Amino acid sequence: MSISVCVASKSYGAVRAVQQVSLEVRRGETVALLGHNGAGKSTTIGMLLGLIAPDAGRVLVCGREPGAAVAEGRIAAMLQDTGMMPAVRVGELVELAGRCYPAPLPTARALDLAGLSPLAGRRVDRLSGGQAQRLRFAVAIVSDPDVLVLDEPTRALDVKARVEFWQAMRAYAATGRSVLFATHYLDEVDENAGRVVVMAGGRVVAAGTPAEIRRMAGGGTVVFTVSGPHGDDTGLAGLPGVTGVSVDGERVTLRTADCDATVRALAAGAVPDWRDLRVSPASLDESFLMLTREAEA
Known about the structure:
Elements: E1 3-12, E2 15-25, E3 30-34, H1 41-48, E4 56-61, H2 66-71, E5 75-78, H3 90-98, H4 107-113, H5 129-141, E6 147-151, H6 159-173, E7 178-182, H7 186-192, E8 195-200, E9 203-208, H8 210-217, E10 220-226, H9 233-237, E11 242-248, E12 251-256, H10 259-267, E13 274-281, H11 284-296
Parallel strand pairs: 3-7, 3-8, 5-6, 6-7
Antiparallel strand pairs: 1-2, 1-4, 8-9, 10-12, 10-13, 11-12
Helix pairs in contact: 3-4, 3-5, 5-6, 8-11
Membrane topology: Peripheral membrane protein
Pfam families: ABC_tran
Keywords: Antibiotic resistance, ATP-binding, Nucleotide-binding, Transport
């Protein structure tokens, strides 16, 4: 197991930042860590990196205590807005970072994985925002870690820079390394994560594949056709789970927090003469909001 967090808790005075959090990341797995600001993501990441000691529970990285795993280069992180020496050249900075670890990657290999080989001779202060993020990525992976932690790695990047960053990250993950990343861009989760951990109020409230997270939320859209225009939205809005109604001639679209309950009501005859039923699960964004809203209520 690359990461094992077992009922870990951390408080700051009366504030419970993390409450009995348990999560695992297997070898070769890419996992997204989701949660609103204040959900406990940063504290959890801090515990994984040995920067924060849990008050209770246990945290292991590759079977080691986090501090030892960091010193051995087993885990590395790309944190938000990490400062870099502006007058140093790209290749020099990556080489310097590699000297801090017992068995680093060759500098050329780290630059290649980050897509920075053509920029090895450029000064750090002359990089674009996207190039600077890829340099932070190269500095993180030069230790040749088994586990890589990314904290909002594409924040403030434009679309092109985000695409280029994730291309580099996927190339690295394909070498069999474990990746845990926190992000507010849920399209990145759909495209890059094999599994998702959702946090709210300092707790893990859901975990599973993106498809499983959608099913846990239970919401979505129910669309069907009726015989003749359905002019009365009142009865439709009163169906179990329904949160919104749209009627376009014979076509009815229901937004619902519980697709199963809504469909059962239709099957029981709540709406006469319906046909052509189609049920679509909620998007990952909608599912995330539903799960965290319930946990924070």
